Amino acid sequence: MKNNIWNETVKNNFNNAAANYLGYSNIQKHFAEKIVSILKGLSIQKGEWIDLGSGTGLLADEIEKEFSTKKITRIDFSKKMLLQNKDSSKKILWDLNNCLPSSIMKCPLMTSNFCIHWLNNPEKIIRDWFSKLSSGGYLIISYPSINSFPEWKQTCKETNIKYSGLTFPISKDIIKSYKSDEIFFSNKYLYVENFPDVYKLFRSIVNVGAQSTKCKRKKVSELKKMQKFWPKKEINSVNLTWEINILILKKL
What does CATH list as the number for 3-148+167-194+241-250? Predict the structure, then answer.
């Protein structure tokens, strides 16, 4: 699938999920709170704080709750997601697959929560974000790593059904362009979601607009087979395990 068609598919799915996104984004909320708890221990210089791939404003709102004097600039490519943000907030409609607008420069803080795995070339884009930091500025990113979804991958292997989830970033590829003293913090966290069955598991992905895939849509027969072979817990429910990386880069 060509990048422009893929990008349009991703955007349309997030647009369609915008109105109900907050009701289903538990993992995004969890790591937004983690980012804020980390932010509380940092000394951030004066200047514009920016949230990249802000969606409905989940992370930006959490930051503003803790730092009541700050107004976070929210950047996203989904117009309907941005419209869910507070009317008083500064919003920029922008495709993050492109370099940031020239007006954005020398920022003391940029954040991005569950965004970079949707970009065509995340390593390149993150380098652009990093270049727009002020000296001493921080770039904080959370993202699912390639080690996410072991249950899904195991089930596909056992059933000979093609894995249709995203190929998430490889952590070492994300950080390879940076000096060791520019990597201020890097940590992995496991987050396990539980569902009554695989049908509700996949529905949860659709509910937040994250169902875009470059593979063919699964047939009903394939879903039934996956339900049968997916590793079950004692209560006969199914888990989906995420490995989430939080990375903080500091510009020297």
Answer: 3.40.50.150
